[in-house]
Amino acid sequence: MNRIRVLIPALGIFIVVISAVVFLLSRRAPPSAVPDSVPTPQPTSFFILSQAFTDGETIPAKYTCDGQDINPPLTIGNIPEGTKSLALVIDDIDTPSGTWIHWLVWNIEPAAYLDIGENTTPAGSTTGRNGFGKSAYGGPCPPDRAHRYVFSVYALDRHLILPAGSGKQDVLNAANTRILGSARITGLYVRPRR
Predict the structure, then answer these.
(1) Distance, CA of 60 to CA of 66 (rounded, Å)
(2) 108-143, pLDDT tens digit by residue?
(3) Could you tell me the CA-to-CA distances from 47 to 73, 74, 83, 141, 164 in Å, in that order?
(4) Proportion of the chain in helix, strand, coil states, percent, rounded to 5
C-alpha cells in the first residue's frame, strides 16, 4: 500500500511532463514555415564575387578561350559611400612577361548591388584595350600551366576622362588619387591537354 502511495504522485508528475511535451510539440511551426535553406550571409565590406566560381577556385571553361569566351557573371556590392563610378580590371598575373589584361572597363555606374551579367558590358561604361589588342573581354587562355586571374574593382570618387581603348596604366594613373576602395577575387584556369 505504501508503494502505491509513492507511485501515484510520481505517475501524476510523469503525466504532466508528457502532456507538456505533447503540447509544446503541437505548437511547433508547420514544416512549410521552416526555410529550405539558411540564407547566405552577405559580406559587410566592399566586395566582388561571381556566380560562376568562388574566390580561389577554377573558372569554368565556358568563360575562357576553350569555351564561349564570354565574361562571367559578377556582382559588386557594399560600394563605399561617395562612389561616383567603378573601374574593373581582370589580369592574368602568371604570365612570363608580367601581367596580361583580359578586361578593362571604367565609368561603370555604381549601385548598392551591381550585377554584371555574363556576356555583357555595363551600360554607359567605357572599355579599354586588353592584352589581345581589343576593347573587349578576352577570356583566360594560359599557354603553359594553371594561371591566376585577378578580378579587381575600384570605387572612384569621379568619372574618368579617358578615351575608349586606353590601357590599364592610363586608367590607374587617372584613378590614382580618386580610389575610395577596392575589392578582388581570384579565379584559376588551366587548359585541358590536347
Answers:
(1) 10
(2) 999 888 999 999 999 999 999 999 999 999 999 999
(3) 14, 10, 14, 25, 26
(4) 20, 30, 50
